[in-house]
């Protein structure tokens, strides 16, 4: 699709990458920066000791030219594109691909000194204007800003690195996790409802209950997430039944989310066609007001407001497509017609979207009837508190996975499927 007209100054990251590429072609210093950045990638941001750089052999390069396309197509059908086709399909088998042989070359660590790495960072900083100076480098040390498409593996190489047992779906184990998550959440809810009064004196208990039960409920919601990815069972009917139940009880329209989430993974880190957690362009109204809030009210107020937005953003996304890509416009996961008509939900998906929304409305009606029989406070304490914490977990975890100060979002020829998928952040989550 034609790119939108924009100001002479490109968005911050796109401008940085474009200039870095031009400099790399014409200057020896930029080439040194690229080599240092690749070393950073191999050492996970830590320089020290000997560094091993793997250079693809002829077999790998041949795979890139000839076999990668077919394998990529197979993998996408298995992992993501099934929802895009509009109906349930028997998952195709994924046979492990033989790992291609690679040649190893030992590189002297002295070529990549701390001074040279620092020079790389300084060159990147110099590429950015003073007006849009970044917040600094993350634990990635800025390496994602100087990597290009050729620095990433092919789909064939990724598939070859995944052990065969990781591609086997175990229905019994999946159901065991489902019953465990369901049992934990249900037991806590029934016990709290039966034995703890809904009074102001017990507010500390209800807050602790919301935190603990809401965290467990996030695991319950993730059962539906795995079903939506076709990663739960080879029995498609069972898989959809579990996913539909899990997400509906958490007020998430299952099939609607399955479709939008597949689009999200097919266009990760694309500035216009990405779906969810798409950043605003420099100069956008909301981005401008957030900067003003931080400048005028301080980091504490800005942080508290940001936490509130992230914690409630899931509902805004389902209702109005908040943080969705500009390519899809105003969206709604409950009703795909009228003002909410969008290519995110093609006509063949309308029946599933409406059915998913109707099921969620049915749960809301059941909660309203429960409140009528008891009290609104009871429903808010037993169900509402954990539900809010679950939403907060969902928003925070996904935000951290897709966002950091030096992780670029791309467009046009700069973007491809594998590069977008690798430009995400796996963070350590310690035991609670």
Mind explaining what this structure looks like?
- The protein contains 13 helices and two strands.
- The protein has helices at 12-26, 28-42, 58-84, 114-127, 155-161, 171-195, 203-228, 236-249, 254-266, 285-320, 350-373, 376-402, 417-422, and strands spanning 51-56, 102-107.
- Strands 1-2 form a two-stranded antiparallel sheet.
- The relative contact order is 0.12.
Oligomer category: single chain
Biggest beta-sheet profile: 2 strands, antiparallel
Which stretches are poorly predicted, pLDDT < 50 over at least 5 residues? 1-12, 23-112
General shape: globular
Structural class: mainly alpha
Counted by DSSP, the helix tally is 13
Task: Please give the radius of gyration in angstroms.
Answer: 24 Å
The N- to C-terminal Cα distance equals 46 Å
SSE pattern: HHEHEHHHHHHHHHH
List keywords for this structure.
about 425 residues, mainly alpha, two-stranded antiparallel sheet, 13 helices
SSE layout:
Layout: H1 12-26, H2 28-42, E1 51-56, H3 58-84, E2 102-107, H4 114-127, H5 155-161, H6 171-195, H7 203-228, H8 236-249, H9 254-266, H10 285-320, H11 350-373, H12 376-402, H13 417-422
Briefly summarize what is shown.
This protein is mostly helical. The chain has helices at residues 12-26, 28-42, 58-84, 114-127, 155-161, 171-195, 203-228, 236-249, 254-266, 285-320, 350-373, 376-402, 417-422, and strands at residues 51-56, 102-107.
């Amino acid at each position: 699709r034609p790119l939108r007209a924009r100001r002479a100054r490109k968005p911050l990251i796109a401008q940085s990458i474009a200039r870095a590429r031009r400099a790399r072609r014409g200057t020896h210093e930029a080439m040194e920066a690229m080599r240092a950045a690749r070393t950073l990638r191999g050492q996970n941001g830590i320089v020290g000791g000997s560094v091993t750089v793997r250079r693809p052999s002829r077999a790998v390069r041949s795979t890139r030219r000839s076999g990668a396309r077919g394998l990529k197509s197979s993998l996408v059908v298995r992992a993501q594109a099934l929802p895009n086709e509009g109906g349930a399909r028997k998952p195709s088998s994924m046979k492990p691909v033989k790992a291609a042989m690679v040649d190893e070359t030992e590189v002297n660590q002295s070529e990549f000194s701390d001074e040279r790495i620092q020079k790389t960072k300084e060159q990147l900083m110099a590429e950015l204007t003073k007006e849009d100076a970044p917040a600094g480098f993350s634990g990635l040390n800025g390496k994602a800003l100087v990597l290009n498409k050729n620095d990433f593996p092919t789909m064939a190489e990724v598939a070859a690195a995944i052990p065969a047992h990781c591609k086997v779906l175990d229905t019994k184990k999946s159901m065991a996790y489902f019953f465990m998550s369901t049992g934990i959440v249900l037991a806590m809810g029934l016990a709290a409802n039966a034995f703890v009064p809904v009074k102001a004196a017990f507010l500390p208990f209800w807050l602790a209950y919301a935190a603990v039960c809401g965290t467990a409920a996030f695991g319950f919601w993730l059962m539906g997430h795995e079903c939506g990815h076709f990663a739960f069972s080879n029995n498609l009917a069972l898989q959809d039944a579990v996913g539909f139940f899990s997400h509906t009880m958490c007020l998430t329209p299952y099939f609607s989310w399955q479709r939008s989430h597949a689009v999200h993974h097919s266009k990760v880190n694309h500035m216009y066609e990405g779906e969810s957690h798409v950043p605003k362009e420099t100069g956008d109204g909301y981005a401008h007001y957030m900067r003003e809030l931080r400048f005028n009210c301080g980091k504490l107020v800005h942080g508290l407001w940001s936490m509130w937005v992230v914690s409630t953003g899931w509902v805004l996304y389902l209702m109005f497509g908040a943080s969705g890509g500009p390519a899809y416009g105003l969206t709604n996961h409950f009703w795909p017609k009228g003002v909410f008509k969008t290519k995110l939900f093609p006509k063949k998906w309308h029946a599933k979207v409406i059915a998913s929304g109707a099921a969620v409305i049915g749960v809301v009606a059941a909660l309203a009837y429960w409140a009528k029989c008891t009290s609104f406070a009871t429903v808010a304490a037993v169900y509402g508190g954990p539900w809010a914490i679950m939403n907060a977990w969902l928003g925070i975890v996904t935000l951290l996975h897709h966002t950091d100060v030096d992780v670029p979002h791309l467009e046009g020829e700069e973007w491809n499927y594998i590069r977008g998928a690798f430009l995400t952040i796996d963070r350590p989550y310690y035991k609670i």
